[in-house]
Design a protein that fits this description.
Transmembrane segments: 226-250, 270-292, 353-374, 386-407
Number of strands: 7
Biased composition (Polar residues): 131-151
Pathway: Sphingolipid metabolism; Lipid metabolism; sphingolipid metabolism
GO molecular function: metal ion binding; oxidoreductase activity, acting on paired donors, with oxidation of a pair of donors resulting in the reduction of molecular oxygen to two molecules of water
Subcellular location: Membrane
């Protein structure tokens, strides 16, 4: 197809309805049908960009060389500003060509108007709320009169006595709070935010923020070597618990560099950074860098979305959004349904108290997720990146060297057990750091008009700390800056923070930042808030069971 061909919005919609994977970038239409299966970052990342202007997402995630390579997928261009569709994976509905649509209507009299409607500007959550909320002005709740833990917003509404209507109410309450707090979602306002963000990105590029400070990695290597040497020395001396602590801290520290490599923030070369990531992640730590990329890249583009972001999907252990009350299906886990059942109803009562104990053993689950990924169809085994899967499997000698160097040195099984437990316990700060910057922020979907930059700032927060403590947090305390510019080396994030704060001041978007202690209070408060909402839900269900009131008012 000729690159000068001008595509209309209607034509793009029809091609997507016919099964094409079309993405808009820099006013060009990209056709990524075959490439999505070979994409090193996973196909789901591309699926979430279908029908959208993904200029910002593509630009911040790829090097200049990659951006040149992407041009080969261009099949034409668009004119003017693009109004985003909701991607099919997110529930968007697309019309086919009128000729195809007419043929289908003639062949099936049962075809409904709903199946051929184009998507509108509202997000799926907001549409569902408007249809299902069942909210009417009143002075009380029909399922429970001001139950313990109910929010101020509950007052003044009559809530139909169904779990669905309460879930819709809770979602809408959070949605309305975000709409009131952040800049308007109208096209002009969000377009201005987008243009200012692109100007900011140009400053980041021109200012050399993408240049890797290799001398900082020299310091990192010294620290890693000292920790590993201390682990070996104390192990030989028979100081097993001390040795376990050194090994755990080594794992915690070195994974920061694996994170950089996963984002291609060290050499900016796919092959070299992937090899670094495999050596650290798979060989040194037993964690698949391929799994991490598959999960983490999706997390970056649909941050905190309960349906799509795997980092939010942890029930029955943790529930961070009332959306889970409706037993949603995960797009990441192939439609797996996270059921809100009696187990989840019980566990949510204690989630604030379970947070730290679960984080203490969370690393074991990462081993499972790593191997589940490597054995699944999601792992890329074709194309130019096929070698990565074989390299990952071959490098998973972590379990062998750990068993040989460590467990073979233990005089008793009890010593070996406590060594493994303590070494994994020492990585807890990393598990907390990962969740701290997101679980306490918004999980609402404000729809396809919201600018990329606003979405990232709304769903991410920083952890403030003095510069001398940066090595403990490993750059992950600057999650807000990192989510806007994931390829920027973490040693440059503190310097870049001032530019991001200036951008927030100019656009009116809140820059969320808390100290480590306050951040912990914030996330525990969020977990308690969901617990309180679940208590109201349980009260509604109890009312239904006791009165037989099915909410048919």
């Amino acid at each position: 197809m000729h690159l000068d061909r001008l595509w209309t919005r209607r034509e793009v919609e029809a091609r997507i309805a016919a099964g094409d994977t079309l993405v808009i970038a820099n006013n060009y239409v990209l056709r990524l049908n075959a490439w999505q299966e070979l994409h090193p970052g996973g196909r789901l990342v591309i699926q979430h960009m279908v029908g959208r202007d993904a200029t910002d997402e593509i630009t911040i995630s790829h090097s200049p060389d990659d951006l040149q390579s992407i041009k080969r997928f261009r099949i034409g261009r668009i004119e003017g500003q693009w109004d985003n569709f909701i991607p099919p994976i997110q529930g968007g509905i697309f019309r086919k060509h009128e000729s195809q649509q007419n043929e289908e209507e003639e062949a099936s009299a049962s075809t409904t108007n709903e199946t051929c409607l184009s998507v509108d500007s509202e997000g799926p959550v907001e549409r569902n709320v408007s249809k299902k909320s069942g909210l009417q002005p009143s002075g009380r709740s029909s399922c429970v009169d001001n139950p313990k833990g109910s929010s101020q917003a509950m007052r003044g509404w009559k809530l139909e006595v169904t779990p669905e209507s309460y879930t819709a109410f809770a979602i809408k309450e959070a949605l309305d709070a975000d709409i009131a707090k952040y800049p308007s979602l109208d096209t002009a306002t969000q377009r201005e935010i987008t243009l200012k963000f692109r100007a900011l990105h140009q400053r980041v590029h021109d200012g050399g923020y993408y240049d890797c400070p290799y001398h900082e990695y020299a310091k990192e290597m010294i620290r890693y070597s000292v920790l590993f040497a201390a682990f070996i020395l104390t192990l030989k001396l028979g100081w097993y618990i001390t040795s376990a602590v050194f090994l755990g801290v080594f794992w915690q520290q070195i994974m920061f560099t694996a994170h950089d490599a996963g984002h291609r923030g060290i050499t900016h070369n796919y092959t070299l950074d992937t090899l670094i990531g495999i050596f650290i992640g798979n060989f040194c730590c037993g964690l698949s860098i391929g799994w991490w990329k598959s999960s983490h890249n999706v997390h970056h583009f649909v941050t905190n979305d309960p349906v799509h972001d795997p980092d939010t999907q942890n029930i029955p252990l943790f529930t961070i959004s009332p959306a889970f009350f409706s037993s949603l299906r995960s797009s990441y886990y192939n439609g797996f349904q996270f059921v809100w059942d009696s187990v989840a109803s019980v566990m949510v009562k204690y989630q604030k108290w379970m947070y730290y104990p679960v984080m203490a053993v969370a690393r074991y689950n990462l081993y499972y997720l790593s191997w589940a990924h490597l054995m699944s169809h999601r792992a890329v085994r074709r194309g130019a990146a096929a070698w990565v899967w074989y390299a990952e499997v071959a490098s998973s000698l972590f379990y062998i060297w750990l068993a040989y160097l460590v467990l073979s040195q233990m005089p008793t099984f009890r010593d070996g057990f406590f060594f493994v437990f303590v070494s994994h316990l020492a990585t807890v700060p990393l598990q907390i750091q990962i969740t701290l910057s997101h679980w306490g922020t918004s999980t609402s979907d404000l729809g396809p008009t919201e600018a990329f930059a606003q979405r990232q700032l709304r769903t991410t927060m920083d952890i403030a700390c003095p510069e001398w403590l940066d090595f403990i947090h490993g750059g992950l305390q600057f999650q807000t800056v990192h989510h806007l510019f994931p390829r920027v080396p973490r040693h440059n994030l503190r310097r870049l923070q001032s530019l991001v704060k200036q951008f927030c001041a100019e656009t009116g978007i809140e820059y969320q930042s808390y100290g480590f202690v306050d951040g912990n209070h914030h996330i525990l408060g969020k977990l308690q808030q969901i617990t309180d909402q679940a208590r109201i839900l349980a009260a509604c269900q109890a009312h239904m069971a006791a009165t037989g009131d099915m909410g048919m008012h």
